[in-house]
Amino acid sequence: MQQRDESKQNNSSLVPVVAFIAMSIIVAFVISQLWVANREEQQTHAKNLAQQVVVNLTTTMNEFFDYTQFWRSYVLKNKGSAPAFDEIAESLYSANNCIDSIQLAPDGIITYSYPKISDIDSTNLFVDPIHRDDAQYSRLTSLSTITGPFPQRRGGSGLTIRTPIFLKAKDNSQTFWGFSTITLRAEEIFKEAHLPDLKDDDYHYQLKSINPHKGKLDMIHCSTYNTLKNPVSITFSVHNTAWILFIAPKKGWVNYSIIIFEIIIGLIFTLLISFSAASVWNLIRRESTFKKLSYVDALTKLQNNRKFYETLNQLHSQEKAFAILYIDLNKFKPINDNYGHRSGDELLIIVSKKLKNCIREGDEVFRIGGDEYAVIVPNQITINGLSNLVQRIKTSISRTTVLGNSTVQISAAIGYARYPQDGNSYENIVQIAEEMMYADKKSMGEDR
Asked: Does 279 score more than 60 pLDDT?
């Protein structure tokens, strides 16, 4: 009897130990989830800051791209000459302190320049070691390019936007005339886009571009040259050039004082088994819901831009073949203007349903933003197969759509690319598909 009582007493004494161990395991799991949630919250905040910088930067660069387009139109209007170059260039130069110089380069040789810089005038862009690769690429592709950053002769670093100019001959053939060029003060551009402000917010950043000539990332601007630890990134296009902004906090993603506090609270909760179990269950459910919602576009219920890049990264890291379609709607803005944003939202939802009806089982549709969509085909597919898919989507989208009491008709520009046939990284694939989409849009007579 005494041995039995001792056995019961020993078993009884094990209960709090077992309970403590069990709850310690649960609490450890909860803390790890909170750690993840805290990190994701920090990353979301960082990405929002970076996204605003990207919007500012692309808006600013688009303004100066328009300047080069103005000079292109001016040269065409004057049949290959620029009679009032100095007067016009002076007014543009005086209006914006980001501009370092404005040039026209017939046959690739800088002939018109404001302000006058003796060691820049007469420079042959096809020979100059800084500009020759981009100049040759721009002439061959008829695309605007961005060169830089590069050290300027007057100090600081510069970015050059270059637009090729082609004159139409009597037989309607296109003859290369030269380039219109805007050279910008890089530091002023980034300051205007509030890029350095990220450092004031305790973040390190690195802005890089995908070099099409070398197949690698070139540093454009940064707060540190040290490797960033687990940065978040945003890939975006600036005039036919893919740029990537990487951002990471100086002190890491996790606030360790918060983690220590959570550990203390967790140890207290181990004494309250039932309450702790209920708390764990609720936290797990909330965490699961948060994670799902973070991947879904609120309007169309399609997967969003974040999920798009995570899926590409996963396929690439697993070395799986895939293809992407980059889709942009034509004539969407007039529908918003004429029928209202509610009708525009309704049209986006209808297009989303059409896309889901066009794809095959296993393919995935994403809303990238605005009126842009993407499709990932996560396996091998032939060019004919992609072409058929593109045609099927274009046909579906171009069918008349009923919006309330009105009918509208839109179309879509689509570009596509395959991995690994067309590029060695998913960033290359996205860039190629996007450029192909812009080319398709241009062939349809649509503006960007």
From this structure: no
Token reading at 423: 């590029």
pTM, whole model, 2 decimals? 0.51
DSSP 109: B
Is-contact 183 154, C-beta < 8 A?
no
Is 245:205 a contact under the CB 8 Å cutoff?
A: yes
- Asked if 158 contacts 183 with a C-beta cutoff of 8 angstroms, the reply is yes
Distant-in-sequence, close-in-space partners of 227: CB < 8 Å, separation ≥ 6: none
| Token code pair at residue 118 | 């003796």
In which band, very low, low, confident or very high, does the pLDDT at 122 lie, cut at 50, 70 and 90? Answer: confident
User: How many angstroms separate the first and last alpha carbons of the chain?
Assistant: 90
Beta strands in 279-386 (DSSP E): 322-330, 364-369, 372-377
Strand, coil or helix: 136: helix
Burial class (CB in 10 A: 0-12, 13-18, 19+), 166: middle
DSSP H or E stretch at residue 204: strand 203-211
Edge-to-edge strand ranges of the sheet holding 411-419: 364-369, 372-377, 322-330, 411-419
Nearest residue to 237 (alpha-carbon basis) of 107, 326, 119, 111 = 326
pLDDT value, residue 291: 63
**Quick one: residue 347, left, alpha or beta (phi over 0 = left, psi -120 to 50 = alpha)?**
alpha
Residue-wise pLDDT tens digits, 331-361? 888 888 888 889 999 999 999 999 999 998 8
Angle at the Cα of 197 from the Cα atoms of 194 and 200, rounded to 5 degrees: 175
Phi, psi of 123, rounded to the nearest 5 degrees: -65, 135
Q: Which of 305, 306, 303, 317 is nearest to 426 (CA)?
A: 317
What is residue 78's three-state secondary structure? Answer: coil
Query: Both tokens of residue 120?
Result: 């820049």
DSSP assignments along 379-408, one per residue: S---HHHHHHHHHHHHHHHHS-EEETTEEE
* Number of other residues whose CB lies within 10 A of the CB of residue 181: 24
185 close to 100: Cβ distance less than 8 angstroms: yes
d(CA 356, CA 366): 10
Largest CA distance in the chain: 116
Place of tokens 């810089």: 117
Give pLDDT tens digits for 141-171: 898 888 888 887 666 788 999 999 999 877 8
Cβ–Cβ < 8 Å for 299, 349: yes
pLDDT attached to residue 282 = 53
For the ranges 29-43, 161-175, 366-380, which has the lowest average pLDDT?
29-43
Give, in degrees to the nearest 5, the angle at Cα 120 between 161 and 124. Answer: 75
